[in-house]
Design goal:
The complex is a heterodimer of chains A (311) and B (287).
Chain A: E1 4-14, E2 26-30, E3 36-41, H1 50-62, H2 73-96, H3 100-113, E4 117-118, E5 120-125, E6 130-135, E7 139-144, E8 152-154, E9 159-161, E10 169-171, E11 179-181, E12 185-187, E13 191-195, E14 200-205, H4 207-216, H5 222-230, H6 235-246, E15 255-264, H7 297-303
Antiparallel strand pairs in A: 1-15, 2-3, 3-5, 4-11, 5-6, 6-13, 7-8, 7-14, 9-10, 11-12, 14-15
Chain B: E1 13-20, E2 28-29, E3 32-33, H1 34-54, E4 55-56, E5 59-60, E6 64-71, E7 75-82, H2 84-97, H3 117-137, E8 146-151, E9 156-157, E10 160-161, H4 163-174, E11 177-178, E12 181-182, E13 184-190, E14 199-200, H5 209-217, H6 223-231, E15 247-251, H7 254-265, E16 278-280
Parallel strand pairs in B: 1-6, 1-8, 8-13, 13-15
Antiparallel strand pairs in B: 2-3, 4-5, 6-7, 9-10, 11-12, 14-15
Classes of the chains: A alpha+beta (311), B alpha/beta (287).
Chain lengths: 311, 287
């Protein structure tokens, strides 16, 4: 039996240039044991989206929401209800605290948007599985320690991996993101599932950084880039790094990053999918061709549909 | 020239809207004057979208500045390089005023007289040079400025068309450059009562004189807008390439007009739209 452990190396967020840190609409949460982590990106064109992203991530890592099945109808209604209640309370309190002129700006935004909205990406790690739930352009990258295994990008937006290309990750987030909102809507088709654990680095990034990562991660410099991300050990160095990237080609947006190292303590570790698995792993489960039908998205979904339940 | 510098508080962009206020803009289409369709429908919808871009809770993101120039035989600055904060104030006050710009008799935006489009291009040039100078003094990088011209006709002065004068002014405007790129000039010919065929983002000069003038006066669309233009369903029949010109002539539909202006405005990464397949849940009431 494998024993899987997770070590959180980097976990930071920062707001878009021009806004104070407390206005950052991204949120992240990590469980005390480091085995559950989530990020969420509040949708810009929605009302007080930080009051949506925050409860989403915190509920995911602390409550009984079970990974890999977060978006089934029963779970999502409960999650959205809790999120809506939190958002409603926080926004009303905030509105009551501002002056009249500001209140008119807020009233305009409330009327205009009518809801708060957020993307979501979360992953929970157990000895049996890396179970994930993603909606929108927040991404989970899984970079295997072994070069024999194809890296993965998990997002519900169009994305793919081709390990034969120098730039293996391709993503296209477009202008119509997937999200959850406080009106009880789930926009877009989420991606959920689980994979058998193997030694790897798991990276969670909100869209701007994920897009930058896809454009800048190459087979040649990938190891160095991952090493750099792992070495960010303070909020100050994170802010400096993001500022540097913004002077280059990072889109000005809120940014969140979590980096975790996954270890599998098994002396003769051999991935259960076999030794010669290069090219068989799905680049994203969403777009997996039936090259390995055993692990296609539909199979995964049906296989684990009843596996996880709210306690 | 990359046109990659996104508009944001680190390096805000600048956009100039030129609105034709010549006498023909007073003609009625289905009971409404052209000028009211353009300003009270299209520009208002656009400005609401832009306001949504800059408002972030109780903060205002300094993403861009805006100038609005109306033109007939004179040139009128309806909005003079408003910062995001000023723009938000303008929008709030417009509720009290009851209009964005006063298109009534005696108002700043009343349609009348002829179409001195060349003078409007010159006014835009002056405005943009001033903006570049100001940003330079602040030590800010300057994204390529954008100019969007909305007209219902041709440049006309005195007793004749003034294509050459207007074209020369447009070329001077397009030659104003920043390290990010030359000024981008988009031209829109809005004519709901026209029977002529619409021409969208052509790569070769149209035959009709009016459309050919707009073709010559317009910029080549920046690389970042080529793909987004291909996604616009209204333009699916058009062949859009990296050599397409930023123009549409004989546009008859108000929604399409707005879409074109929004698309041009998105040069600096300003965007709108949250449409997708969705599931709607009936959530239980809060406890």
């Amino acid at each position: 039996m494998m024993v899987v452990s997770s070590k959180i190396l980097t976990c930071f967020k920062t707001s878009k240039f021009g806004l104070s840190e407390k206005k950052c609409s991204d949120s992240f949460a990590v469980s005390a044991d480091g085995m559950a982590m989530a990020i969420a990106d509040g949708v810009t064109k929605s009302y007080f989206s930080r009051f949506v992203s925050k409860p989403l991530t915190e509920q995911y890592v602390t409550s009984a929401f079970v990974a890999g099945e977060l978006f089934d109808d029963k779970n999502i209604i409960r999650l959205l209800s809790m999120t809506r209640d939190y958002w409603d309370l926080e926004t009303r309190e905030y509105e009551a605290s501002v002056d009249e002129d500001t209140a008119s700006d807020l009233a305009y935004q409330r009327e205009r948007f009518g809801m708060g909205a957020s993307t979501f990406a979360g992953i929970k790690i157990t000895d049996e599985a890396l179970a994930f739930d993603v909606l929108g352009d927040s991404c989970i990258f899984i970079i295997p320690d072994s070069p024999e295994i194809t890296p993965m990008i998990l997002t519900s937006m169009p994305a793919s991996t081709d390990s034969k290309q120098e730039k293996p990750f391709v993503c296209n987030f477009g202008t119509h993101p997937h999200f959850l909102d406080t009106n009880g809507r789930m926009v877009g088709e989420p991606l959920s599932g689980k994979i058998t654990p193997f030694p790897c680095t798991i990276i969670l990034m909100t869209d701007a950084l994920a897009d930058w990562f896809c454009r800048n991660y190459t087979l040649t410099n990938g190891g160095k880039l991952i090493g750099l991300l792992k070495s960010i050990d303070s909020q100050k160095s994170f802010n400096n790094y993001i500022s540097l990237l913004r002077d280059q080609d990072l889109h000005n947006d809120d940014v969140t990053l979590i980096v975790a190292e996954i270890s599998v303590s098994c002396l003769d570790f051999e991935h259960p999918w076999g030794k010669n698995i290069k090219g068989l792993l799905p680049s994203t489960l969403d777009q997996n061709e039936e090259t390995d039908s055993k692990y296609s998205q539909n199979t995964l979904k049906s296989r684990f549909l009843k596996w996880l339940r709210l306690s | 020239m990359s046109y990659n510098l996104h508009w944001n508080p680190k390096h805000p962009g600048h956009i100039v809207y030129l609105i034709d206020l010549s006498g023909s803009m007073a003609r009625e289409i289905n009971g409404r004057r052209m000028v009211d369709i353009v300003i009270n429908d299209v520009i208002k919808a656009l400005f609401r979208a832009l306001r949504n871009e800059i408002l972030n809770e109780d903060d205002i993101l300094d993403m861009f500045s805006i100038t609005v120039i109306g033109y007939h035989s004179d040139v009128i600055k309806l909005m003079d390089t408003y910062s995001a904060v000023q723009f938000n104030r303008f929008m709030k006050d417009s509720l009290k005023r009851g209009h964005l710009f006063n298109t009534g008799i005696g108002g700043d935006a009343e349609p009348k007289w002829q179409t001195y489009m060349g003078d409007a291009f010159e006014a835009a040039s002056t405005d943009i040079k001033n903006w570049i100078d100001t940003q330079g003094k602040k030590g800010l990088a300057t994204p390529a400025p954008v100019v969007i011209n909305i007209t219902d006709g041709d440049p006309y002065e005195g007793n004749s068309f003034a294509y050459e004068k207007a074209l020369a002014a447009a070329n001077r405007l397009k030659n104003i450059r920043t390290p990010d790129g030359n000024t981008l000039l988009f031209n829109i010919h809005f004519s709901p009562d026209s029977n002529a065929t619409r021409v969208v983002l052509p790569s070769t000069p149209p035959q009709a004189r009016s459309a050919r003038f707009l073709y010559e006066a317009s910029s080549i669309i920046p690389p970042s807008l080529v793909e987004s233009a291909k996604m616009v369903s209204d333009w699916q029949g058009s062949v859009i390439t990296s050599t397409s010109k930023a123009m549409v002539s004989n546009e008859k539909n108000t929604d399409s007009l707005l879409r074109f202006i929004q698309w041009g405005t998105s040069t600096g990464g300003v965007n709108a739209g949250m449409e997708n397949a969705q599931r709607q849940y009936e959530l239980p009431k809060p406890e």
